[in-house]
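Researcher: Please generate the 3D structure of the following complex. Treat every line as part of one assembly.
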Amino acid sequence: MMSKIVRTQASFLYTFILIFGFYIVAHGHLTPGGGFQGGAVIATGIALIAVAFNFSNVKRWIKKTHLTAAEGIGLLTFLITALIGIGTSFFYNWLANSGLIFGQRVSYGVNPGYLNTAGTLPVMNLAVGIEVFGGLGVIILYMLNYVKEVRNDAS
Amino acid sequence: MIWDTLMAHSPALVIIIPLLAAFGTPLIGRAGKKYMYTWILCALALTELMTIVMLYHVFTNGTAIYVMGANPYNLAIPPDSHGIPVRIILTVDAFSSFMAFTASTVALAGGIYSIACEHEQTGQEKYYALLLLMLVGMLGMVLTGDLFNFFVFLEINSLASAALVAYHVDKGVATEAGFKYAIISAIGALMFLFAIGILYGEYDALNMAMIGSRMQFTNLDKIAMALITVTMAMKAGAIPMHYWVPDGYGKAPGAISAMLVTASQASLYGLFRMSFTVFGISANHVTLGWFIIILGVLSMFVGVTMALIQHDIKRLMAYHAISQTGYMLLGVGVGLATLGTAAFNQYGLAAMEGGIFHIINHAMYKGLLFLTAGAIIYRVGTSDLNKMGGLGHTMKYTSIFFIIGALSIAGIPPFNGFASKLMIYESVYQFQPVLSIIAMIVSILTLASFVKVFHSAFMGPKIHNVKEVPRSMLIGMAILTFFIILFGLFPNIALHYLVKPAAEALASPMGYLSRVLGGGP
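Model: Done. Output below.
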């Protein structure tokens, strides 16, 4: 467990890291970044919490089973999104220009970037974001298994 | 109507089904082991079924293409792309579907076998998820027509295999083997990626057909060709790059060893596909062909001589796997060396058919042998041949399966090894008699080696008080035995429906190129 200053900072920054991660995931089809990068940013939030707080507490707060479930659900969402298009072909972008969610039509030419476009791409970004968050989170937790608690008065 | 749609989408479905099943396995595994086993078996059986549908589709309608995300599904070159295939294209010719059939059959047998064999292990949902991912890697490698996509599936295959090799931790020995495999694969994949980068920089395309048609064979291309050839030969376990094979095959669980054989063969597919289709139009066939022949002869001879001195049953079989890979390299190498000359129709094509036939035969009998070795280890608990003996008294079916596999690998009629080896001997003899004689000597040494194994494992007085292995393991072995006997007794079936179309498809790269670049639906 780190000092009180670090812990306060971590609890404060944690929300911002999550928001930034979700921002990168959600704008994957418009700006640099995407599901993988955003998911990795979100997973750094877990790393921050795990470093700042006592590891045994972190293990209680964040369960490995939940993270692996997130991994599976993300991957399945990705694949099923691709699979729905199989009436035409696998990975067919069935949402684009459909008028539904992420289905807004965009005219040719320069535009400021509309979030509600690009069809299945944002859905897949979201799925990959969930998957990478789960996968990297599990990796971080497994690595922390080998962390030893050092007490301040040990020396 | 439904049948036509199914056939048209079969190349994609072959990859989708195991992929979906793999990602679903950890979730289904929470509901209970029984549901998970049913899920796995359904997925594997469905994959096998789809592979057969695809096989039929390719056999009747010729090379099939499937463009990911295109409308319609076979629109390889969109009208506004200036003649460049922009999407990921699965290009399935007879050779691809042949390899896919081999891989999914062995995976089906391995999956059924694993249910009893890995029954007491922990982390089973991860094991089966990785097993399915490994299958996805193999199928993707053999079906894709895109270089970068090939690299991605190569990585999926390597990572899943490396994790599975380490599955029985075995006091860290298996972990070391898995780690070694992961490192070797990573180095190979990096070299392959570098080669892709060279080709992409030169030809502005990643599609194999596009690169093949634009191929100029400059010095840069020669570097790329060397990198790809070495990488694929390394992953296939040809001799100067074979050092991961004994560890990897030897320490993996039984079913995984059997599947590693087909994983290596997927790399072999990559080697042949690159040398014939991508570089084939303009490359110097004779040099490349002889290079592959020399790799093959070295693998055959060194592999079998190394196998003779082993006393660990799975290590011994691993060295034999190296040696048998040599036959495939020899057969197809002779085909490549004579490509485009009059000799090709005389004996080159026959040599290629022999080499390709040997791929499926090897997958079946070597798979069977690894499964029997797994069964012995499952019951006796050791892989040391000196500590076995007298297992034939109680493990009757396993010993029968072992005899069939051993006779088949040694090329004794009426089993399938004989059929393909005879084709290789006959055709290679016309090319260069010495090579054929070496191949025969290797075959004799193989027989000697397996006689030794059979004697020390199954004959002699009863030492171990063991039972026969559970039924699901026997079923797994029986599936492979069925194909061994079928292809041994009626090689014409395999030759007509599987091998001849595959060899002809591989030998005529122009057909492959024009199918992709020929335009729309």
